[in-house]
Amino acid sequence: MKNLQKLLWLVAIVGFVVGAYGLYDRVAHGHLDVSYGSYVPWGLWVGAYIYLVGVSAGAFLISTLVYAFGVKKLEKIGKLALFTAIIALGVSLFSIWLDLGHPERALELVLRTNFRSMMGWMIWLYSAYFVLLVVELWFALRADFVAWSARPGFVGSLARILTFGRRDVSAGAVARDKSLLRVLGSLGVPLAIAFHGGVGALFGVVGARPYWNTGLTPIMFLIGALLSGGALLTFVVLVFGPNQGSAEHRDTVVFLGQIVLGLLLLDVLLEWAEYSIGLYSAIPADVASMQLVLFGPFAWVFWGVHVGLGVVVPALVLIFRGKSPVWAGGAGLLIAITFLSVRLNIVIPGLAVPELQGLANAFTGPGLTFDYFPTLTEWLMQIWIVSTGLLAFLIGYRVLPIVTPERAGAGVMGE
Amino acid sequence: MPVATERELPSFIVANAPTDIPEDPLIRMQADLARALKKPLEQRRWVMVIDLRKCVGCSSCTVACIAENKLPPGVVYRPVLEEEIGTYPNVTRKFVPRPCMQCDNPPCVPVCPVSATYKRADGIVVIDYDVCIGCRYCIAACPYSARSFDNGRYYTSGTPQLQAYEKLPNFEYGESWDRSQGGSPIGNARKCQFCTHRLDAGMLPACVTTCIGRATYFGDANDSQALVSHLIGSPNVTRLKEEMGTEPKVYYLV
Known about the structure:
The structure holds two protein chains of two kinds. Chain A is an all-alpha fold.
């Protein structure tokens, strides 16, 4: 797995360098070189935002299996799950921040929140979630910071600073940490459901868009979050998890793979419910978006990327090769990456159908079209943001005690 | 040279001048407007009436609006929707100008996370350009696609010279908005506001005055003497997507 880590470093650095042009273009020229506009106001960046924030919620909810529900099998990867959730949250919020027409006014969201707007709620829920993640990760790492304080060099100094002077690692202190973690994890469950269900509701409440306007939308967001977050975590644990090569590591990856398979099937069930009921109603304006997804110019995204690579292939792998951690982790990566297509297929087709007959040709121009495909700038900036997040993850993995085989071993002996 | 007055006209012209010329609706609506402006804001209820039987689909309202509000590419407040009905040779075309409906229950207002968009006391839905963060949630929430996003484009960019007239400020909401420095309304949602800046100056909205077929009417529906009050009382009046309960204040005569 060391080679895969090296490959990820390469991917992150290349993405960071190449994608920088997208960031430059966005910062220097604003919203000039983008494909979204007046008729399709949201595009790749919004799709990536709901995708990544879902990954964060999913990874976090899996961490709560450890901290709130005490699932022993996943105990060693709790910190990794929390760390993944923080990185995914940061990447997602950065995406949506630069998507704003006026990013410099983001503080207005706090200063003059309109609580009638789902988006108004989001800023507070995200802030609460971010604080909870940081505090929870700190408590999960505190004893490791103390242990790493003895190390020489930068890593040791950093660990010393991050203990914030709380160096007590007696059994009593560690037990206190653990019960605090249980409280935080338990608080986190409703919070994660609230904020990601809230993202779903943000779309669900828009009566003007029948494709979004169903009670199933927030639920699908949540299940999708668990699926994409769990799938990514399966891959992350395969590559970065503790005690690699041990039976324990293998069992953890395989166990996560089985959870992901269950979530995948549940997600397919919900998708079937949404599409079969939606299409059956057969009111042309209401089914226009679904027909666009299934038979429109980007039908290959649904059938090829999502159904083929995101459902059928990984499901077969998890069913027939699920006992192998490499196959399970690979299936996880495939689900996690292709899940972006699911999120894009929520955002764009909901908007890419004219609300009034004759609008498409009434007055045309850039942004006054119902055809949307991300521009190079949009792709590159998104690549830059994700690569930056990946770099942050890789650096954090090196300098923070996210994965500590020696302590993990000690923990096993202690119990 | 002195201007000829009626008294100086030859008597046979004065004698034969038609006396039954109906008053131009614009003259009447200007009088209606002047009356409405004497009332406090909250007692006015602006409505627009568009007679689809008179609309010839010339799009001069679209163009007048673009000129008045100096709209850039990608931003349009009042497109004219065109629909072809029937198959050749039994075919007609229907034109539906679509300004902002200024809904009484506007779906765009509650979704704004920072309350930058709101309904004024006189019913016009406006946007505070200085507050709008450009999230575009309101654009997604409008059932009439009546909101635009200003990406910051210019019609003459990419030509040898960006023309000076494109960099002139516009006067929406009675303020001077200078896009040339990259500030608002670039990056904002934008919409038709019934030309509030013109109303404040006692003028009808640009689309109303420019309509060559006199197909667009405007006035205060709280004034029983206003032309629009008579028109919206007719049985052949309809509104777009009535079933949504948005209560548009733009009426169509069909």
